TrEMBL record, chain A:
This is UBC-like protein. Residues 5-156 form the UBC core domain. SUPFAM superfamilies: UBC-like. PROSITE patterns: UBC_2. Transmembrane segments: none annotated. Keywords: Ubl conjugation pathway. InterPro entries: Ub_conjugating_enzyme, UBC, UBQ-conjugating_enzyme/RWD.
Automatic annotation (TrEMBL), chain B:
The lineage of its organism: Eukaryota, Fungi, Dikarya, Ascomycota, Pezizomycotina. InterPro entries: Ariadne, ARIH1-like_UBL, E3_UB_ligase_RBR, IBR_dom, TRIAD_supradom, Znf_C3HC4_RING-type, Znf_RING, Znf_RING/FYVE/PHD. This is RBR-type E3 ubiquitin transferase. It comes from the Eukaryota. Its EC number is 2.3.2.31.
Length: 156, 520
């Protein structure tokens, strides 16, 4: 598959974002190149877990995007914590089926992924990390796309 | 979404009930004493049993043409009975994991539900085609140029042909999917049918795609497995269920000569059950246990650095190499401890005595493990050597014909001896892993006797087998070797038979082995 395919699609996405802006609570921080984008998201309702917080997302696109999902992680900065969630590891890795090969659809895009993550946070009431977070974070040197997540419970 | 595996196992267990009605596999379901021809028969012949031994299970070997024909037959049958097209029959069969009875029953009940679930939303006969639709925008590449060719399944989710092809190429080439590729749209479960795929799959992918489709037949059926031998295209049919793997060790033999376990696809590991084998191999691979012991029980001599193993309770250590004397506890000079070894205060500490107890315990358990491991490894290695010897045997057999005037048939006894050696070694090897986990009870003694008898017979045969051609030309030795071969096979059968019966009756208690987990 030619990288051109991904480039073209990302170009179109960028153009669309610039023309019509992103939904509330989502902001494009940088899209310097067509390999890595940074976005900020906020949870807009009054969920006390995430109130007044902004979270930084890093998207990395392969040459097979959007046939294959992008790699999406939360990034920790001094003013950008990793949100507390039973499917988000403390190193920012997200366990979400739509970002895996099985759950991904090429119709998804950067905007729809951000919205899914927003609603994943909105709907959460548990102030906790996934089980085994410590071990996972310590042991895991893999890139998210090389991890076989087991989507045990998608109700959270 | 659940993982695929979960879905699969749910489906297959649901379908289990049906299997016994499936006339395609009558005779392979149970360990019955049928008269079916089967390739696993040499040892049986030799002991002259009519009854099928408990360790021996029924299976059949299918070659690629058989597999192809079986699929075609089923598709044809369903095509006639349900009056649907062959493509649809194939998709439905794949959806029902090739359980024809279940498919027909369900279809008769509620055809539209079955079609929907299998990704054949409606019975429309319109054949799939690519279309140019004015004003169309592809949601994948965001292209909207006029004249853009597009395609949609019955669900109406339309994408440009180029995107569709990228998508299929990813699924087929990278993910190895073929029979259950879904519409690219988010959350749309419609399966891309065979005719649409024929239209969309590009020429360079067709072969791989058809291969993958072929393979689903074997992968989908719980009763079928590919022979894991490299380059072998055969599949084995066997009725042993996953849940029975703690009671039976289903060794099967392919026409290519490869003997493997139907349960876990590893090389034949009778008499040890799959779960035990898994744990044993993990234990052997994980040498941390050994490493821990070594770090707890050996130290380097503070003077010359050579490794010293502590083998008694006394802390007074003398390096064998440089004769340096030191205290095990504090590594200090022994002379500084005066004459009373307990002068070392470290020894008085409670933690010190605890550590000593723990060391003693870990030493006992390690020694036990090494006892079995060494014997296991020894047979594994010997089996390799025997194989080398067999390769030389072929030459020997030719020479022997020249020197003794024996015919090709007459020298075949060496071939039988070699085969007996291989299989018996394989069995012996696993008896040691088995024994490691075996809780001691009154059956252990019988097991160990059987093991010893087989081991002695194998070593004796192995010795004779290595004799020179001149010695082998002696007709008396031939008789002895043939007798020993028979005896080895007989001892192996007795051991396997005994263990298999005890396993089946749940009488062997395997101390440390967890029961097989249900998840796949
Ligand atoms: Zn497109
Ligand atoms: Zn669709
Ligand atoms: Zn084979
Ligand atoms: Zn096995
Ligand atoms: Zn020394
Ligand atoms: Zn000391």
């Amino acid at each position: 598959m030619s990288a051109q395919f991904a480039t073209k699609r990302l170009g179109k996405e960028l153009q669309k974002i610039r023309n019509s802006r992103l939904p509330p609570g989502i902001e494009l921080v940088s899209a310097e190149n067509l390999e890595e984008w940074l976005l900020d998201i906020q949870v807009l309702d009054d969920n006390p877990l995430y109130q007044n917080q902004t979270y930084r997302l890093k998207f990395r696109f392969g040459s097979t995007y959007p046939i294959e999902p992008p790699e999406v992680v939360f990034v920790k900065l001094s003013d950008r914590p990793i949100p507390m969630h039973p499917h988000i590891y403390s190193n920012g890795i997200i366990c979400l089926d739509l970002l895996g090969q099985q759950g991904w659809s090429p119709v998804q895009n950067v905007e729809s992924v951000c919205m899914s993550l927003q609603s994943m946070l909105t709907g959460n009431s548990k102030n906790e990390r996934p089980p085994g977070d410590d071990d996972f974070v310590r042991a895991n040197q893999l890139r998210p796309k090389d991890i076989e997540f087991y989507y045990h419970d998608n109700t959270v | 979404m659940d993982t695929d595996d979960d879905f699969m196992s749910a489906v297959s267990s649901e379908y289990d009930r049906q299997d016994s009605d499936n006339d395609d596999m009558s005779g392979v379901e149970d360990f019955d004493f049928d008269d079916e021809p089967d390739t696993f028969i040499d040892s049986q012949k030799e002991i002259g049993h009519r009854r099928k031994p408990a360790y021996d299970i029924s299976f059949r070997v299918f070659q690629p043409a058989d597999i192809q024909r079986q699929q075609q037959d089923l598709i044809h049958e369903v095509n006639l009975i349900l009056t649907i097209s062959k493509e649809e029959a194939a998709i439905l069969l794949r959806h029902f994991r090739w359980n024809k009875e279940r498919l027909i029953e369900d279809y008769m009940d509620e055809p539209s539900a079955v079609l929907g679930a299998a990704g054949l939303a409606s019975n429309s006969a319109s054949s799939p085609k690519m279309e140019i639709i004015p004003g169309f925008v592809c949601d994948i590449c965001c292209e909207d140029e006029p004249g853009l060719e597009s395609f949609a399944l019955k669900c109406g989710h339309r994408y440009c042909v180029d995107c569709y092809r990228h998508y299929l190429s990813q699924k087929i080439r990278e993910e190895g999917e073929a029979a259950r590729i879904q519409c690219p749209s988010e959350g749309c479960n419609l399966i891309i049918d065979a005719r649409s795929l024929d239209l969309l799959v590009t020429a360079e992918l067709t072969e791989r795609y058809h291969n993958l489709l072929q393979r689903t037949y074997v992968q989908d059926k719980e009763t079928l497995k590919w022979c894991p031998a490299p380059d072998c295209q055969n599949a084995i049919e066997c009725g042993v269920k996953r849940k029975d793997l703690d009671k039976v060790v289903p060794t099967v033999a392919c026409l290519c000569g490869h003997r493997f376990c139907f349960g876990c696809a590893l090389n034949d590991h009778q008499p040890a059950p799959c779960e035990l084998v898994k744990q044993w191999l993990k234990k052997c691979a994980d040498d941390s246990e050994t490493a821990n012991w070594i770090s707890a029980n050996t130290k380097e001599c503070p003077k010359c650095g050579s490794t010293i193993e502590k083998n008694g309770g006394c802390n007074h250590m003398t390096c064998r190499k440089c004769k340096h004397e030191f205290c095990w506890m504090c590594m200090g000079l022994w002379t500084e401890h005066g004459t009373s070894w307990y002068n070392c205060n470290r020894f008085q500490e409670k933690s010190g005595t605890d550590a000593r107890d723990a060391q003693a315990k870990s030493r006992v358990s390690l020694e036990r493990y090494l006892h079995y491991y060494n014997r296991y490894a020894n047979h594994e290695q010997s089996a390799r050597l025997d194989k080398d010897i067999y390769n030389k045997t072929e030459k020997k057999m030719v020479q022997l014909q020249k020197e003794s005037g024996m015919s090709w048939i007459e020298v075949q006894y060496l071939n039988s001896a070699s085969q007996a050696l291989q299989t018996c070694r394989q069995t012996l090897m696993w008896t040691y892993a088995f024994a490691f986990y075996l809780a001691r009870n009154n059956l252990t003694a019988i097991f160990e006797d059987n093991q010893k008898d087989l081991e002695m017979a194998v070593e004796a045969l192995s010795g004779m087998f290595e004799k020179s051609v001149t010695e082998l030309a002696d007709p008396q030795l031939k008789v002895v070797i043939m007798d020993k071969t028979t005896y080895c096979n007989k001892r192996r059968v007795i051991l396997l038979e005994d263990t298999a019966q005890n396993l089946a009756e749940g009488m062997e208690s395997l101390g440390e082995v967890a029961s097989p987990s249900a998840c796949g």
